[in-house]
Amino acid sequence: MSWVRMISAQVEEAAETLGGKAVGLVLLHRLGLPVPPGFVITTQACRAFLRDGRLPDGLDDELAAAVADLELTAGRAFGGPRRPLAVSVRSGAGVSMPGMMSTILNLGLTIEATAGLAVETGDRPFALNSRLRFLSSFASAVTNAEASAVGDAGDAGHSGVGHGEDPGRGTRDEETRLADAMKAIEEFVRQRCGQPIPDDATHQLVSAVEAVFSSWDTPRARTYRALHDIPHDLGTAVIVQTMVFGNRDGHSGTGVAFSRDPNTGENIPFGEVLFGHQGEDVVSGRSTTRPLRELAEREPALWAELLDALNRIEGHYRDACYIEFTFQAGELWVLQVRPGRFVGGAAVRVATELAEERVIGRHEALLRISPRHLRQVRTPRIASSEEADVFARGLGACPGVAVGHVATTAARAVRMAQGGALVVLVRPETSPHDMHGLAAATGIVTARGGPASHAAVVARAMERPAVVGVAGLTVDAGNGTVTAGGRTIGDGTLITIDGTSGEVVLGRPRIVANAADEHLHRLLAWADDTSGDHSRRGESQRLEAAHAVLRASGA
């Protein structure tokens, strides 16, 4: 059995074997979009690893051959002292499990390769920053520790501004800080694992693949699968790709983009971007992102390429889409793609507008909307901020209203929920290790992060109202307190959050529901025309009657 596939337009296998992420990369190749060269290790290899406790026979040789292919394509040497090749190692299950499994970036930056990268670029701080990011992500993966647990030194490469925007770039102080941070992480791994981080690129890759496969069975991943009725025996694929360095310089960065606004369905690109950073900085929520539109102002040529990519992908899906991208020295690379998966009013608007644009027919638009979508259209909102005691404001990340008692740790959220309380989890940012607390909470608030942060992505997947990026919010989990605007509240305080407006309010204010808009009225008129029944009924009944007619006709 073959365990590895090079990712190209010619690959035909399904997500059950390649994983959803790799299938998306195959699509990008077919659309002629820029994708970093790479290969995928199949879910079959993961299942064999979980069954036998070791990588399957023959995988080592296939990895060596696949890496040699990447070296030839890139004209670089994996872990080599001259023109070194570095890779990313990411999970990619057949079903979406956002942020639940491990990712390792910049793998292959051994001590010798890092020195070679510094010589090649003439930028030693960039090379050291990139190695620090490798060590940090590798340490989190192999020890199954939170990024914060890797140590304060480990956060040094991720906190504050990115390398490409660092005013201290190139100074001896920065190089010393990076070197000290790397030593701290290496010592952390040595203490936790009883052995050092390998300084051989091939050994690093094998260890990383084992860590990603193992992360399929972590408690956080099992909790997520249980919540979403995902079978535990599917396993994950592993995608290995040539690195694109978003931290290279001021014309580099990373971001995420929807072809349409996921909150409203409006036909304008929506997302966020970080200049001088790598992708994990966006999804972790540790860094403050910028609105996607700033990319148009700073990199107009790249913005035009991004719009072209979104249009091509949306044309293929005939639906809104989502991508993750990185750009290095002004060159765009697309790293991930999937359909937008909008809900509520956004889903209704996209379906009706695509039908009016004649991209899809009215019957297909009706079938894309479920009664559940209709229930979500009537999104609850806090009635009026003038009537409420607003404690803080952030970015609405998932629509709806949640009322609950503050819990400043995931463990505390679980305990309070087990005692029968409704809970709002309030954190500086969330990570996969908070999954049990996220599952117990009715709503989520984070001080940092944007619409693509871990907290926001998981909240949308779980349909939990969420507010992220609350500027000035300080969470002291040790003392169980939250401070904003000079006021401090403690664990157990009753709050209400509005995942549309981003308001965090003390107590239980008056709640109202959104009224139906023109898109819903139009869709339901199509439903009545389809069913032939124009009598006065509930919205779900009108939609279900149309669905029954369409299914009976084989639509």
TrEMBL record:
Listed InterPro entries: ATP_grasp_subdomain_1 (IPR013815), PEP-util_enz_mobile_dom (IPR008279), Phosphohistidine_dom_sf (IPR036637), PPDK_AMP/ATP-bd (IPR002192), Pyruvate_phosphate_dikinase (IPR010121)
Q: For this protein, what is any one GO molecular function term?
A: pyruvate, phosphate dikinase activity
Q: Where is the Pyruvate phosphate dikinase AMP/ATP-binding domain?
A: 52-288
So what EC number does this one have? 2.7.9.1
**Sequence ranges of Basic and acidic residues compositional bias:** 163-174
Every copy of the PEP-utilising enzyme mobile domain together lies at 423-502
**Pfam families referenced in this protein's UniProt entry, alphabetically:** PEP-utilizers, PPDK_N
Top-rank taxon: Bacteria
SUPFAM superfamilies documented for this protein: Glutathione synthetase ATP-binding domain-like, Phosphohistidine domain
Q: Where is this region: Disordered?
A: 150-174
Keywords, A to Z?
Answer: Pyruvate, Transferase
- Name of the protein in its database record: Pyruvate, phosphate dikinase
Its taxonomic path starts at:
Bacteria, Bacillati, Actinomycetota, Actinomycetes, Kitasatosporales
